[in-house]
Design goal:
This protein has about 120 residues and is of the alpha+beta class. Helices cover about 20% and strands about 40% of the residues. The chain has three helices and eight strands.
Length: about 120
């Protein structure tokens, strides 16, 4: 089973908290400092980040979340000959994730990741 997170660039996370947290009452899944991720009950997650680039295709990122590193590595093996791979899988200690990025046929960024436990971070 995979889950999905759709990320969007924003300038002000306080406004995001007020609208998506307080007004829409979406449950906060993770606060990563420069990125807030909210649950969309049974429909994946939505994230808002201040650090995303501002260019059209680079400002959004469709993220597919897997249960473990092995599933991420399997997708990398499958996709590396089919799409433009931005980077191989790696651990990102800042966000406690293991991930890689590819570009789709329109140049949109796709991320494949798993959330890591503290003891798994390298």
């Amino acid at each position: 089973m995979i889950d999905a997170i759709h990320f969007y660039k924003v300038d002000d996370l306080d406004n995001v908290k007020r609208f998506y947290g307080d007004i829409l009452r979406l449950p906060l899944y993770k606060d990563q400092g420069v990125c807030l991720i909210y649950c969309l009950q049974h429909h994946g997650k939505i994230g808002f980040c201040t650090h995303h680039p501002s260019k059209k295709n680079d400002a959004s990122c469709i993220t597919f979340v897997y249960q473990n590193k092995a599933e991420v590595d399997k997708m990398y093996g499958y996709l590396k000959s089919k799409l433009d791979v931005v980077n191989p899988p790696k651990t990102n200690n800042k966000f406690h994730i293991y991930h890689f990025f590819v570009k789709d046929f329109e140049g949109h960024t796709l991320e494949f990741q798993t959330f890591m436990k503290n003891e798994d971070l390298a």
